[in-house]
Amino acid sequence: MKNFSLVILLAAIVMSFSSVFVVPEGQKAIVLLFSKVQKDSEDSAVVYSPGLHFKVPFFSQVRRIDARIQTLDGTPDRFVTSEKKDLIVDSFVKWRVNDFSTFYLRARGDKQYAETLLEQKVNNGLRTNFGTRTIREIVSGERSELMEEALVQASESARELGIEVLDVRVKQINLPQEVSSSIYQRMRAERTAVAKEHRSEGQEKAETIRAGVDRRVTVMLADAERNSRSVRGQGDADAAGIYANAYNKDPEFFSFVRSLEAYKKTFKNKQDVMVLSPDSDFFQYMKGAKAQ
Asked: What is the C-alpha to C-alpha distance for residues 152 and 292, in angstroms, rounded to an integer?
């Protein structure tokens, strides 16, 4: 009897645990009864909000689905404009589940699988919008209009997945790598040509400035040389005048001083040899000094 009561107690505990389930905050749940979505009297799927709920034990399965806003940041894709030009477009999508039954049936309740399908639909919409515009229109001022049209198309196509698309944004638009490389090379060549032009103009101006400076230096040196010669000539004239006045005042003394200066310069180097006659006028003052 005790064993039977224990079995009944354990069965009751197991049934009580299998008949309740908890939906965490930020999620919602649907219940599958015999692998079919449980529906209400209006034939709509029963969606359970966060909290504690009851279900049929053993025969029911709970599928919890994230009800928060999700961000789909897909890989950049290649689109073709109306000019048949390729663009690499990087975009993202804000979405959330609004029909949990449809989401479970169409996307198997799998977020990654749903995002794969959603990315295809969004890219198809973007591809259509990019294909009707030129690069100038896309870059200059129609990006917001393009994103609005892509949002409308994505919302309509995502409805069949039970998904509500809240926003579609284009983050970045780039040219393909091979096109970018050719553009960069052309830009580099243009910048190099401009740099060479500026450099040649700078060299020309430098040569002009250098020639002007050289000319001014030449003129200044010529003026300095002319002034120095004029000063030197004036000095020589003044010296000659002084010598002449001194000579006129005392010719004998002037001759004596000039002879002393000649003796000093002549006998400055002791290794010099002079061959002169003793009666030469060069030694006239030395003779007088010897005689005295």
From this structure: 138
